[in-house]
Amino acid sequence: xxxxxxxxxxSGVNKYSTRxxxxxxxxxxxxxxxxxxxxxxxxxxxxxxxxxCSIRQPGCENVCFDHFFPVSHIRLWALxxxxxxxxxxxxxxxxxxxxxREKHHNQKLHKSPGExxxxxxxxxxxxxxxxxxxxxxxxxxxxxxxxGFKVPRLVKCDIRPCxxxxxxxxxxxxxxxxxxxxxxxxxxLCILLNLSELSYLIFKYSIKRYAKxxxxxxx
Length: 219
What we know:
Elements: H1 4-14, H2 19-43, E1 52-53, H3 60-68, H4 73-85, H5 88-105, H6 118-145, E2 154-157, E3 166-169, H7 173-218
Antiparallel strand pairs: 1-3, 2-3
């Protein structure tokens, strides 16, 4: 698929992000999207063709592959990238709504167009919560589907129509394991960045509210 839409989406949200948010965009674009396109796709491209079992019983190899790889790693990563980026659409829609209101009233309703405040702040916080939630859900999904974040060299299969316990071999397990660890690590880094940005915005908003109350009391 073409990833141009995802790139444009992340670039559009970038100007409304904090510094931590811009780091998140850089991590997603450079360490996840580009690595996925340039390397990961090619490594798992022929995973089914290179999956070999020690017996040529018709249907045995297909059933074993489906059992140990119920969902393709590469398709699951693609879905993860899409899902963690979609919440940014909420910010894009809110900004479009804000700009439309300003055009309708023919005046600037906000002092700084790129400032996160009011309703936009709530939308931005919701998008952070959703992104963090999707990241965690996909990490748990990966762990449950593949019995941990590992790629074994040898798997033993005794599912019908296999006549007995069959040894099946996964191609390039070390290379796949390295990229799996890398992508899991970048996903954890994105979770950390999202939580840091969420805490920062809440703290900043709380300080701002407290300062306003102090000023009102003094007045």
